[in-house]
Every structure is written in C-alpha cells, then in structure tokens.
Amino acid sequence: QVQLVESGGGLVQPGGSLRLSCAASGFSFSRYTMRWYRQAPGKERELVASIGSLNIITNYPDSVKGRFTISRDNAKNTVYLQMNSLKPEDTAVYYCNAAGIAYWGQGTQVTVSS
User: Fold this and answer.
1) Mean pLDDT of 75-103
2) Positive or negative CA dihedral for 94, 50, 43, 14?
3) Distance of alpha carbon 59 from alpha carbon 70, whole angstroms
4) pLDDT above 90 (res 54)
5) What CA–CA distance (Å, rounded) separates 72 from 32?
C-alpha cells in the first residue's frame, strides 16, 4: 500500500533553515511527479514545489522562490524540501504527495517564530 512519511519539521527562528524529507513506498516512486504542499491554520492547502520524474522542477508560489528547493533521490524513494530564510508566514503543516495518487501522509509541522 502507498505510504508517504514526512519528517524534518520543527520550531525555527525567522531566517533559519529546515530540510524536510518524505519517504515513499508502495508505488514506483521514480515514475511519479512528487509535490510538496502546505496548509496553514484556517487556510486551504497550497502547492509549494513540484519535481517531475525527469527532475523538472517548478516552485509555487512566488513567495517561496529563491528560498525553497525541492529535490529527490530515486534510489532512496525520498523527496526533500530545503527551506531557507524562513519567515513566520511559512508556518504550516507540510505534506508531500505523488501526483495522481489520492493519498496524504500525516504531514510535518513547521513553525517559524522567535
């Protein structure tokens, strides 16, 4: 069965960095576009970054461009999100998702606060 396990979240001060990981299993990871989403309290889930099977990368929204970097290791069935220069408005639960697969993991909480 499909599993996506996010990790790496935590409490960080503004300007700090975190690296999120998502370990995938139960499907042919290397063939799928992988995406990171986030959901802040009281807001809808939004797409943060996407990486295709051929490592075609797209970042959304403009507010994270230049600060967030998505990458993947197909040998480890893992997708990463490097987050730098974090801001309080980045506070959210972060989820990974395989495009076309209706499964969501538990997410990992990121809190940016002084």
Assistant:
1) 96
2) positive
3) 8
4) no
5) 11
What is the predicted pLDDT for the residue at 60?
A: 78
CA gap 106, 70 in Å, rounded? 19
Kindly report the three-state secondary structure assignment for every residue of 10-76. EEECCCCCEEEEEEEECCCHHHCCEEEEEECCCCCCEEEEEECCCCCEEECCHHHCCCEEEEEECCC
**Cα torsion for 105, 73, 69, 104, to the nearest 10°?**
-10
Give every strand in the sheet of 18-25, ordered side by side: 3-7, 18-25, 78-83, 68-73
Q: Which pLDDT does position 53 carry in this prediction?
A: 86
How many CB atoms sit inside 10 A of residue 93's CB?
18
Q: What is the pLDDT of residue 90?
A: 97
Report the C-alpha gap between 26 and 67 in whole angstroms. Answer: 31
Angle at the Cα of 32 from the Cα atoms of 28 and 38, rounded to 5 degrees: 120
Q: Which residues make Cβ contacts (< 8 Å) with residue 42, sequence separation at least 6?
A: none
Q: Which amino acid is at 18?
A: L
